[in-house]
Amino acid sequence: MKNKTQQERLFNFGISFLALGAFPLVWFLSQAILFRELTEIISRNMLVVIGLLVGSSFVFLLFSGMERLIRLAPMEKRDSLEARMFAGPSIFMIGLFLLYPAIRTIYFSFKDRFGQSFNGIENYSWAFSDAEMLVTIRNQIVWLVFVVFFTLFIGLIVGWLSDRLNKGEAFFKSIVFMPMAISAVGATAIFKFIYEYRPPPLTQIGIINGIRVSAGENCSNNRLIDGTLFDYADDSCNRAIGWLQQRDLSGLKIGESLEAGGWFSNLLVNFPLNTVLLLIIMIWAYTGFAAVVFSAGIKAIPSDIMEAGQIDGASEFKIFVSIVIPYIKSTIIVVGTYMVVTVLKAFDIIYVSTRGDLETNLLAVKMLDEFSKYRNIGRSSTVAVLIFICVIPIIVGNAFREKENSRI
Among 93, 120, 288, 342, which lies 20 to 30 A Cα-Cα from 43? Predict the structure, then answer.
């Protein structure tokens, strides 16, 4: 009896090893070797066709063989072994394409610019002492605070108001959600036209500057009326402003008045105007997503609880604060987590608008700059590690939250 139990354990261990280790390893190596050899022989289009046919057939044969082995196991062990069989390739691929690159990136963060010799914590000292890098970290913090807060805040308000509509709720939600259908590059291009600046006396094609220089009795954006040109060259006209070129408020009239104030006014003078104007793009793009998700969460609240609050004489604001927010707390956390991760990997908006110049850079763009522009593998890896460190608290917090929810 004892020998039989040991044999069953060895058999289960062998199948588990095949499912979690040997099976995915054989699958990956066979595909890698096969297509490495075929790359030099046939065209790319034909390689794709062969990959679909051979790859899927090979996976089918492997799964079929594993299934036959699992049938030899005791009945009570088959479910767990089948789960391992399907989880094995996924775990292997996660380790190969996520875990291994992460460990290798941490390893390179302690090396020099060519990734050859170790230089200790020199790269990390640079990250927290270099002026340009400190501005990048400041911008990333500003993005995290403003984008996440305003996306959740405006999304909650819009979701609550849309749920109060008697008619046109679907149309209103579709309009609010529409920016989400636009790519980050497209949204940035739209806002670049809004912030566009041309030096005088050129016609301002940016919406904000066009309205600004046209304000006034004798001021216009280079319009020809009855043969007379109306421009904005007069001193009484407002001047055009390069919005994305404004690192702070010192170049504006409001900045000149603030500089004469105390320490708080001097702090406002250093307000990163162009950075805030760029993060507005992400708020505009993702507010509709947050509003639709929150609206779905609000609709899941039992109607009798809402009616009880109204019967007790609670105002709409009181119902929103005391009933709605506590009930959709988990939804708020999920959307907030998604927005934090999205902000940490924000790349398109900065790359398309300013390319990280004019003190608008973010960590994701800085990582690419250090790798491709400055050819510094060590510093690029260090920036990647910093992004990863920022994500760790989010991952750990969500893990503990899911653990708490599973106990309830």
Answer: 93
